Amino acid sequence: MVFSKTQRIAALSLIVVAATLYLVFRPSPLPVDSGLVTTGPLQVTLDAEGFTRVNDRYVVGAPVSGRLSRVILEEGEHVRKGDKVAELLPAALDSREYREASARAASAKASFDEAVARERRVALDFLQAERRQVRYRNLYREGAVSREAFEMAENEAMVLHKEADAARSAAASARYAFQAQQAAIDSQTMGIPVPVLAPAAGTVLRIHEKSERVVTAGTTLVDIGDPSRIEVVIDVLSSDAVRVRTGNTVIIDDWGGEKSLRGVVRTVEPAAFTRISALGIEEKRVNVVAVLGRFEPRLGDNFRVQTRIVLQEAGNVLRVPVSSLFRDASGWKVFLIERGKAVEKPVRIGMRGAIQAEVLDGLQEGDRVVVHPTNELSHGMRVTFQQ
Hints:
Number of helices: 4
Distance between the termini: 53 Å
Order of helices and strands: HEEEEEEEHHEEEEEHEEEEEEEEEEEE
Helix content: 25-40%
Shape: elongated
């Protein structure tokens, strides 16, 4: 069949028009963000906020009620064990309180006298039993008494020896109790101030009551501790705490220094506590306590830090951005970019961190995938991205 020149021109014109219409009205490529599949180290971390805490803190309280003299110590000052950190002047006793205190002191004196008498009696019994044991040992060697009689004498001496030790301890305890009652009376009747002593050597971390005022017994006055022994307390959800193990690496960020600090988890506390979140949701939280690998002098007590608890890590794995993953009924998938088109591809995922995830199957190094895929994106759609 032979076409005329006019027919050929018309057909060619139709083809050009159709191609022009296709180029004009076809959908333009969808702009997307992309990421590469790479190989390298991967860490699975639990990110949480924490604070520093001095280990072995000593909280010094007021031993009696009274007027607290102005504390002359300064925060950061070093004290030795037994140094005076504060001074209290007990309130004077009225007639009723004086009679009650005198009665308590008399009762303590009677208990002390009774304990001393018992100590002397038990000491005499022990001395007699010890002599009997020596005699029975000699008689037993000569065959004059049985082994059973010798062992009974020996056991009696041992029992009385322990009773003598207990009686001495009871007498000492009663003496201290009597002295404490008498000292309380003396201080409150004679105006003798009661010193508050440091229980251990350390640095004054915080002074709760600086100025002179009346305080009750048990009021917290001073915190003492060793700032070189810092631990980090991290509170996490109880569902996350079950994944943390003793010895996990902890990376401390945003503490104020240029480099991150490292430590290890020392303990995961066995009991949770309740906290209300910023959204008003009741949460069960657990404290994870970590210790630093080296002392950082710029860190003090109760400093805020940002931490990452390393739950899993690997040195060399195939990685894909977590933001490229999405899931449907069949499992994890990504949009792989091939020849300018987005191809939906199933993948098998291993470890999954906050930024990257381990790829076990479905991708290879150098593949480019769509990150943050939108609902508009579908299989086979043309896409454009910036390198």
